[in-house]
Write a structure and sequence with these properties.
Layout (H helix, E strand, L loop, with lengths): L1 H5 L2 H19 L4
């Protein structure tokens, strides 16, 4: 995960948002 170290705060936020969306899709099939 070397890319994580290069990620800027904005990139980290985008990653977290994408991860959260994926989790929501798993928890909420209708989503």
């Amino acid at each position: 995960m070397e890319k994580v170290e290069r990620m800027e705060p904005k990139s980290q936020i985008t990653f977290l948002q994408t991860f959260a969306i994926d989790v929501c899709k798993i928890l909420i099939p209708n989503g």
